[in-house]
Amino acid sequence: MTKTASRFSPEKEHQTQHPPRCVVCGSFSARKSFDAAEKGFSLLSCADCGLGRTWPAVPASEIGGWYPETYYGKENVRFNPLFEKMTHLFQWRRARVLHNRVPRGPVLDVGCGRGFLLSFLRSLGYEPHGIELTETAAWHARNRLKIDVMTGDFLTLPHQKERFQAVVFWHTLEHFAQPVEAVARARELLKPGGLLAIAVPNSESLQARLFGRFWFHLDVPRHYWHFGARSLEQLLTRQHFRIVQTDHFCFEQNPYGWLQSLYNALGFDFNFLYSLLKNRSARTLRLREHPVLALVTVALLPAFLGLSLVMTFVEAALRMGGTIEVYALKE
Predict the structure, then answer these.
(1) Is the backbone peptide bond immediately before 221 cis, with ω within 30 degrees of 0?
(2) What is the pLDDT of residues 43-87, one digit of tens each?
(3) Contact 87, 170 (CB under 8 A)
(4) What CA–CA distance (Å, rounded) separates 84 from 82?
(5) CA-to-CA distance for 99 and 104, rounded, in angstroms?
(6) pLDDT digit string (tens) for 74-85?
């Protein structure tokens, strides 16, 4: 038993050598998949469990530089008004899904962002709690929605063990330098039988395999890890969770993964459309500086959007969705 525990607690071992040890299965079989679009970084993949990782990993002391003010937008408003409305609808749907699975009580959203999910859960009778890395990221949830949000490192922030009915990592687990420890910490905080809800980009998806370095959901180097269904299921099983559902269809994330990746692969400025859809304070590119590119982007949009919607249903049918949602119970 001691030997097994040592093998599957590898996050603190052999992480600076090349190839590094896989944090999920403990293998040393990492191989280079491709160079990332962001210069200076590449993707390594574990030959055994398929877990991908950004290499080299940005040190904790420097990762904050990859989250500038434009990443969040002024007062945490990231998108234009139409997409802001859609964000609210998607968060409401997510709250309803959790409501169908989780008894009322305390819930914790790790990386809660603007706090919409927690606000909707509160309206359904839950006690909302959030965690964010910085005061900037927590500002909207804390000041506008009046939600209890702590800032700092999830692994060390004080919380009562076995307190929460649910812990949520919604597109945040891949941002953790130590994802195994994050899942283990979540298990400590969950009540017996509590629900862990995780959504991540799926590195084994059809769109990930087709587009490689041009895949929108890579987000290197902010994403330390690139999970597939296989590696995420291994991680949860070894942390004594029982998976009850894995979804490969997500209308919020997967069609846009196809759409933006198509533009990227054709040589358009990287994530140009994504920048145009943002609130002005969150844009990295300006429309007036790229008028021709903007016109071509808009002209291709109907055809690309239609193709993206079709492929979203195809990948879901193949169980190869661009993002996956996994629900697991603490055993």
Answers:
(1) yes
(2) 999 999 999 999 999 998 899 888 877 776 666 666 767 778 888
(3) no
(4) 5
(5) 8
(6) 666 667 677 788
